[in-house]
Amino acid sequence: MAKMNKKMISLCTAAISSLYITGYAATHHAQAVQTTQSNTQEDTQEDASSNNTSSTSATLTTQTEDTSSESELQDGTYSGTGSNEIGSISVSVTIKQGAITAVEITSDNTRYGQSSISSLPNQVVIRQSADVDTVSGATLSTQDFETAVAQALEQAKA
After folding, report:
1. Exposed (0-12), middle (13-18) or buried (19+): which is 82, by Cβ within 10 Å?
2. Distance CA 3, CA 46 (A)
3. pLDDT digit string, tens, across residues 138-157
4. CA 90 vs CA 12, 34, 50, 74: distances in Å
5. This prediction's pTM
6. Residue range 16-32, pLDDT digits in tens
7. Which strands sit side by side in the sheet containing 76-84, from one edge to the other?
8. Per the record, GO CC terms (predicted)?
């Protein structure tokens, strides 16, 4: 086996380091955004419970608008499938009282397996949306999952 010169080793090390830092920064940023969203929701709840009627009415107006968009979903269990060159993912989405209450991955025929995207169904229930965080290393599987959920939600619309 041929020896690598020091310059080549340094370049490879720098490239790997920059990829690691980019991944870390993206993950850290996503966690910060989630934390900010959680804090914003807590602040909104605190405002709604205060005696300030203008804050309460603004919050109620926002909640009413959110409820009306959720109520467009008809109760039931719907399925969807997303696929690409590495395989396909099928999901089952349960709607109760116009809200997403459960999401289950019913089939995963991708290269990387279901364990890499196992956190995504919970994100759909929490966010009430097919928009989920992309799983590093399982980008295409994440896209398949989003497509499958979006397809199921289209079926559930009134």
Report:
1. buried
2. 64
3. 899 999 999 999 999 999 98
4. 39, 26, 44, 20
5. 0.56
6. 766 767 666 666 555 55
7. 76-84, 87-96, 99-108
8. membrane
